[in-house]
Amino acid sequence: MAVISLLMLMMALAFAAPDWMDCPAPCHCKWSSGKKTAVCKRAGFTSVPDNLDGVMQVLDLSGNHISRLGKEAFKSVGLLNLQRIYLSNSGLQEVHGDAFRDLIILVEVDLSHNQITSLQPETFRGNERLRMLYLNGNPLRRLVQEQFPPLPHLRILELDGCQLEYVNRNAFIHLSALETLSLKQNLLRNLSEAVFMNFAHLTTLVLDGNPWRCDCELRGFRDWFLSSKLHSVSLTCTEPERLADRLWENVPSEEFACPPRVYVSPQAQVQAEAGGNVSFGCHVTGDPEPQVSWLYEGYPINHTWLVIEAEEGLLEKWVNISVYNVSDADTGVYTCVARNVLDSVGLNVTLVLPEVVTATTVSKSEGGLVWWGLVIVSVALACAVVSATAAVCCVRSRSRRRQNLKASVSFTDQEKKLLDVSIATTTDRGTGSCEALGPELELVDPPVHITIESEPLPLAVYPPPPEFSGSVLPTAAYGNIFISVSVSRDPTIDASRCPDLLDLPHRAKPVYHGMATLPRRPCAIPHYDNMGPRVTAGGSSTLSLPGSAAVELPVPPPPPPPPSCAPQLTPEFVSL
């Protein structure tokens, strides 16, 4: 009886306690694989439901519309006992770094086939018992350094179809217990074997479905992968074209090569100074190591004035060239050529000199001569211009003079006698007196040549003298008579024979320049005779020439001398 009573009590308590299996619709709660499971698939949830029992160990939210998992998304609704979370195909786009915080017994997470573009490296920190993580089908594209926190019990990581293009060599460095890694159906072209050096327990590595570029960058990983016995499916080359669709194991390691690439420094055109030095070079990469050579205008360089230096690295080298004492012969096109088993490529560098505008130059000594020559030529041209101008003016003046002069006439006997007296003269340098030489004196080599010219004056200046009133020039006006004396320069002739027509008492020692002109007296003189205006010592105007009768003229009072009159002459000189 006591036993029956105890059983009835236990049944009453069980019916009185809340049942975890009474899940709010549309979720369905059940036992599954020994776990309390809440199945809420395709239930239309937009966030984690908050009316589930905290004893739930498994939560399946697949097929819902939960776009974001916020901070402490599960802890905030009391689901701290979760061991497995399924959120595949839920439209998830963002996962907070602390979304799974304090879920210390979490062993499995499925976030596959969502729209997660990036995963914070702090995500899953503290979930140290996590063993399986599925991120398939998310457009992650890149796995950065230390992408995952320390997860010492993680055994399986799947990243299939995540559009991965780059995996950092330290992305999985904290996943030392990883046994299975799947990276298939991504966009990986190459990987470094260093990515997997920390996996002591890795048994499965799935890499098929990637567009592998079988070149020198993949060679190291290819050699490691084939020797690790991890591949279950053979991998195929996609690039380069010569290796397309070939299996890795069927392509020798040395054919995983990179063609040479050439870069010039500092630029494709180098300008140098004439007589200076210049250096330029090319940066070459390639694997196997390329052989590098320089060409000048298409021909190998073998000149001693060129120095070629190489700085070699693991898969690259610098090859520099130096040209000393640059001249026009060094300008042109230089070509850096790199060759290996795959290809031969070249790149040109043009060496140029700056354009120089040339001009004719002369030395200092020659420059002086040139300048003096230019000065002389300039002076000569100036003189020629002045001479031409003077000649033109003279011609015009003579033309006007000829127009003003009357027809030439002959002198009368009285005029001839007067001229005979005036033409030949001599000078007594001691007394300053002059005497007539007489027409009988004839010199074989006369030292003096005298030219007499008459210059007419306007009628308004002087009326014709009375003596010429009945001559052939009754209306002509006469001015002064100019006597031009030309002294011979012959050194053999005695200088004392040359008359000094300007030997005046008040003058200093005369300086002879070879020509002399009697000064004209511009003063107006009212006295006239056959020599024109003159004044005798006695104020008389009597004409006393040989063979002629004296003519008495009225003597008007003399006018005051003008301020501009020439110096007074001696009576003898005036008588001339």
From TrEMBL:
Keywords of the record: Disulfide bond, Glycoprotein, Immunoglobulin domain, Leucine-rich repeat, Membrane, Repeat, Signal, Transmembrane, Transmembrane helix
Spans annotated as Disordered: 535-576
High-level lineage: Eukaryota, Metazoa, Ecdysozoa, Arthropoda, Hexapoda
Biased segments, Pro residues type: 554-565
Protein name: Ig-like domain-containing protein
Leader peptide range in chain numbering: 1-16
PANTHER family membership: IG(IMMUNOGLOBULIN) AND LRR(LEUCINE RICH REPEAT) DOMAINS, KEKKON 6, ISOFORM B
Entry GO terms, CC: cell periphery
Domain Ig-like span(s) in chain numbering: 260-348
Gene3D superfamilies in the record: Immunoglobulins, Ribonuclease Inhibitor
